[in-house]
From TrEMBL:
It comes from the Eukaryota. This is Transcription factor domain-containing protein. It comes from Penicillium nalgiovense. Keywords: Membrane, Transmembrane, Transmembrane helix. The chain crosses the membrane at residues 158-176.
Length: 188
C-alpha cells in the first residue's frame, strides 16, 4: 500500500468501507447467519430476532482498523499536502452512521425518531468513551483541515457537515451534561 498514489489509496479505502458497511448492514437479516449463530430454526427467528453478534462486529472492526491504520502512516506527507479528509471521515463513519447523525440533528425525522437517535447515540458515547473521543478527534481533524482549504473538492462540504454534526452531538451529549454537573467555582 505504501507505493499507491493518493487517488488509488482513496479508492481502496472507499471500497473497503463500502464492503464492510454493506456486510454489516445485511448481516442481521440473513437467516443463514442467524441459524449458524443462534442454532434456532428460521421459523423461530422471526419471533425471537437477534442483533448482530458483537463479537463478529468487533473482529471485523479490528481487522478493518488494521488496514485503515496502515494507509495514512504509509504516506503521511502526501495526505497532509493534499489536505485529504477521506480517511478521517471513514474512520468516523465506521463508528457512527450518517443516518444516526442526521436523525440526531432532526433532519428529516419526527420527534420520536430524534429522541431514539439521541438516546442511542448518548448510550454509545457513554459506553464507548474512548471510541467517542477518537471520533471527536477525527471530526476536529476534518473541520480544521477543511477550514484551512482555499477550494473545496465536491465531497468536502458533506465531510464538513458530517464533522460538524458529530462535534455538535458530542458537545450536546457528553460535554454539556458534564458541565452541568460541575460545581460553580465563581459563584458571587
Amino acid at each position: 500500500m505504501a507505493g499507491m498514489d493518493a487517488f488509488r489509496r482513496n479508492l481502496y479505502m472507499l471500497s473497503l468501507y463500502s464492503e464492510e458497511r454493506l456486510f454489516l448492514d445485511k448481516m442481521p437479516y440473513s437467516s443463514v447467519w442467524k441459524t449458524s449463530i443462534t442454532g434456532m430454526p428460521v421459523q423461530q427467528q422471526w419471533t425471537h430476532p437477534t442483533s448482530t453478534p458483537s463479537a463478529l462486529r468487533a473482529m471485523m472492526s479490528h481487522s478493518m482498523g488494521q488496514v485503515f491504520a496502515v494507509i495514512p502512516t504509509s504516506a503521511k506527507p502526501d495526505y497532509i499536502a493534499a489536505r485529504d479528509v477521506n480517511h478521517y471521515i471513514l474512520c468516523l463513519l465506521r463508528q457512527v452512521t450518517l443516518q444516526m447523525l442526521e436523525s440526531f440533528s432532526g433532519w428529516p425525522d419526527e420527534d420520536a425518531e430524534v429522541d431514539t437517535s439521541r438516546n442511542s447515540l448518548k448510550h454509545w458515547m457513554e459506553n464507548n468513551a474512548s471510541s467517542a473521543r477518537k471520533c471527536l478527534w477525527h471530526a476536529v481533524c476534518v473541520y480544521s483541515t477543511l477550514k484551512a482549504k482555499q477550494k473545496f473538492a465536491c465531497h468536502d462540504p458533506l465531510c464538513f457537515l458530517i464533522a460538524f454534526l458529530y462535534i455538535w452531538a458530542f458537545d450536546a451529549l457528553v460535554v454539556a451534561p458534564e458541565m452541568e454537573n460541575q460545581p460553580e467555582i465563581f459563584a458571587c
